[in-house]
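Section 5.1 Outputs to date
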Amino acid sequence: MPTSPAQAPTVPAHVLPHRTPAQLLVVAREGLTEAARTRPDGLRYAAAHLAALRAAAALLAARARPAPARRNRITSVWVLLSTVAPELDEWAGYFAAGASKRAAAEAGIPRVVTAREADDLLRAAEQFVTVVETALGLAHQPALDGLHRPLRLGVSDAMSRPGAAAA
């Protein structure tokens, strides 16, 4: 992981997200919740894949620095992720391989994915979001009201937990 902005990998400025990594991870978690509640297999697959995509964008937002570049070349977030976070190369390859199925499912093509494929991708996306949260030093903790909030690792939240003893 880069130790200073000067060492951070560069990516074309137009591909960097306009949200903070924490915001993107909240949206990713919301996408996982949506995917888990979605019954049509193709839509569940697509929602889970988009959640993983948002987690990858969070990592790009945190680790990459913008570089001027021409906009005429389309670059996959999964290719950028491999450049910015080589330790996540296998994850990037896994989700890149499912991108065409996601597009077909979003287009409404019936039976493009099975229930098993949708469930497997949802589990993988949940794991990937957790890996990204850990890599960024953010931990996921579901709030009692159902809202998701990332926490900085190492920051004590003992007083905000139900049942925590007052000092």
